[in-house]
Every structure is written in structure tokens, then in C-alpha cells.
UniProtKB/TrEMBL annotation:
InterPro entries attached to this UniProt entry: Metal_Hydrolase, Metallo-dep_Lactonases
Protein name according to UniProt: Amidohydrolase-related domain-containing protein
Lineage: superkingdom: Eukaryota
Disordered: region residues: 1-53
Species of the source: Phellinidium pouzarii
SUPFAM superfamilies given in the database record: Metallo-dependent hydrolases
PANTHER family tied to this protein: AMIDOHYDROLASE, AMIDOHYDROLASE-RELATED DOMAIN-CONTAINING PROTEIN
Coiled-coil regions listed: none
Pro residues bias (residue ranges): 1-10
Length: 341
């Protein structure tokens, strides 16, 4: 009797069974212009100017005083009509004043969350923040802290905040050298270890892109110590509970002018530099854990230009050849999954 082998599954069936989405590996070609001799069988991706998020969640909006008017004016032309919701950063406001500001913002349905400065470097507080600053408040309250060194009390404070259900916005101020990266790795590693199986969410800023001197020519940046350190350490921070904000960088200058139809000479230079940092970050974190924000990190000490940064950030991502679902994630979906959960 002849054994009858079961039929092989249709290739179409296997193709429809999607497993976990693997992190993208970016070819070197994303940094070079396409070959003009490409045939019709290999169509070029859409023009970067044609790739836009369907909606935007701005995950880092700094107030001017207690008003959103300045941010609305900056963002109006570039992405104002696409705004779904925002995360307000009150990192330069003390806790008592933050309560008043939050009460004034609580009626605005566009505010997804508010991030406030909290002295986590002092360790576990004697009592948890009272409403409207509790983890269960509406809008959601996140605690912000700046990392400039590693200490047991700071680790204890961050671990306590995560255990209380707070998202911790961690602003890095450790410099761009090997020692600074090792401090950051040490803090995040100890905090994550202390959480066990229940890991709270940490969101890093002032790291994509990280600070570096614009005086370094872009042709020499690949071998510059700060870039070499970035390449060597960014993947070590990519733990499952760690996210990274894509914010205007601390490069010693305000964000240059940029619009949909035209990037200034300075903005094009920024875009080239930004793409150099985006590549390693995307390979380490994937598009699922990178979050767009339009205001600089508190550690950056730079002037805001929300609309110009949106255009530079959008064009930089688009030129990596990402799909629509990926740009929608970076500019909206990821922030909602973190701050809206």
C-alpha cells in the first residue's frame, strides 16, 4: 500500500500567518540616494513628502506659563489639524504649582497625560502624591526625573514610582561618553531588576538624538567618540519596558526652520544627522517603542519650534522607507499605548 503524504499548505496560507513582528534591520542604502537605473519591477518608495501620519499624539508639550497658546501657534501649520491628543510636560513647575495647572487643564479632552517633576532622587517619599497628582488621576499623571548619576536612593525612588503605577519620564543628563552610558545602563538595569515580573514603563528622553556638538562635520561624526558610544550602547537600553522619545536634540541651537514644502539648508543638515541616530535606535527599539514629541527635553535647554521639528522628524523617518503603519505608530499609536493605557 502506498503511503499518501498530506498535501503541503498553500504558500498563501503560510504568508497570512504572521508571528511576532521582528525588529527591522536597516540597510546602509537608506542613507544613500536610490539608483536612478531602477527598473519598474523594483518601484521606488513614496516620496518622503507624501508620507504623513494619519493623526498625531504629541508626547512632549511644554507650556509657556500655564497656556498651550505658544505650542498651538508653532504646530498649527505643520500638524495642528492632525492632533489627536497631547502629553503636557510640567518639568519646570514645582509640585504645588503643578496641582493648580493640572486643575486648569483637567477639562481639556485633548490632554492624554501630564508629566510633573518629582524628587525621586531622594528615594521613597514618606507619602504618595495626593490627588490630583495620584497615579489614578485624570488626566493621567506621570513622574519626571533627571538622571545625572547613579545612586541607591535614586534607584529606590524610581522603583517606588513604577510600583505605584506611575510612568516614569527619565531625562538623561549624563553626557555622551562611555561613562555616561554606563551610568544610564546601571540605573535602568537595577530599576528593572527590582520590579521582578511586574515592570512599569520607563520613557527616556534627550537620547534620540543625543547631545553632540554641531561643530563636528557630518563626515567625521561616524568616528566621533560620542557617536561610537551611542552605537555601542543604545541596544543595551532596549528592555521590554523601556521606551524612547524622539525629541528636538540638545545641539546648542534652536530647531532650524522647516515646512512641508521646504527644509532650510540648516534643517537639511539636521535631517542628515538625525537619520544617523535613527538607524541604530530603530534597530534596537523597533518602531513600536519610539515616541514623537515636539518640545525639547528639560535637559536640552533649547528653544522650542514644534512645527519645524515635526517636519524634520517626519522626513527623517520617511526616508528610512518605513511603512504607513510604522509612521502612525511613532507619531501617535505608541504614545497612546504608553500614556493612555
Amino acid at each position: 500500500m502506498t503511503d499518501i503524504q498530506p498535501p503541503l499548505p498553500s504558500p498563501g496560507v503560510g504568508a497570512r500567518r504572521k508571528g511576532p513582528k521582528s525588529l527591522p534591520k536597516l540597510p546602509l542604502s537608506v542613507f544613500t540616494p536610490p539608483n536612478t537605473g531602477a527598473s519598474d519591477r523594483f518601484p521606488l518608495p513614496p516620496s518622503p513628502s507624501a508620507v504623513h501620519p494619519q493623526s498625531v499624539v504629541d508626547a512632549h508639550v511644554q507650556l509657556e506659563g500655564t497656556s498651550l497658546d505658544a505650542w498651538k501657534a508653532e504646530s498649527a501649520e505643520s500638524f495642528g489639524t492632525k492632533i489627536d491628543s497631547i502629553v503636557v510636560s510640567l518639568t519646570d513647575v514645582n509640585t504645588q504649582d503643578a496641582q493648580k495647572v493640572i486643575q486648569g487643564l483637567s477639562g481639556d479632552p485633548s490632554i492624554l497625560a501630564v508629566s510633573i517633576s518629582f524628587p525621586l532622587e531622594k528615594g521613597v517619599p514618606s507619602s504618595a502624591p495626593a490627588p490630583p497628582l495620584s497615579a489614578s488621576s485624570s488626566p493621567r499623571i506621570c513622574l519626571s526625573t533627571s538622571i545625572s548619576g547613579s545612586s541607591p536612593t535614586h534607584v529606590e525612588g524610581i522603583s517606588w514610582a513604577l510600583g505605584q503605577g506611575f510612568i516614569v519620564d527619565m531625562h538623561t543628563a549624563v553626557g555622551g561618553g562611555e561613562a555616561g552610558w554606563e551610568i544610564l545602563e546601571d540605573v535602568i538595569g537595577k530599576v528593572t531588576e527590582s520590579q521582578g515580573d511586574r515592570k512599569g514603563k520607563i520613557v527616556l528622553s534627550n537620547i534620540l538624538p543625543p547631545p553632540h556638538p554641531l561643530s563636528v562635520p557630518i563626515v567625521k561624526l561616524l568616528t566621533h567618540p560620542t557617536y561610537v558610544a551611542y552605537q555601542g550602547h543604545i541596544a543595551s537600553l532596549s528592555l521590554s519596558n523601556v521606551y524612547i522619545k524622539f525629541l528636538p536634540p540638545a545641539w546648542g541651537e534652536s530647531t532650524p526652520q522647516a515646512s512641508l514644502n521646504e527644509l532650510s539648508k540648516e534643517a537639511r543638515e539636521w535631517k542628515r544627522r538625525v537619520k544617523m541616530y535613527l538607524g541604530p535606535a530603530v534597530e534596537a527599539f523597533g518602531y513600536q517603542r519610539i515616541i514623537f514629541g515636539s518640545s525639547p527635553s528639560q535637559a536640552a535647554n533649547a528653544a522650542s519650534n514644534a512645527g519645524a521639528w515635526y517636519e524634520i522628524a517626519r522626513a527623517s523617518l520617511a526616508e528610512l522607507g518605513l511603512e504607513q503603519e510604522d509612521i502612525d505608530a511613532v507619531f501617535g499609536g505608541n504614545a497612546k499605548s504608553v500614556y493612555g493605557a
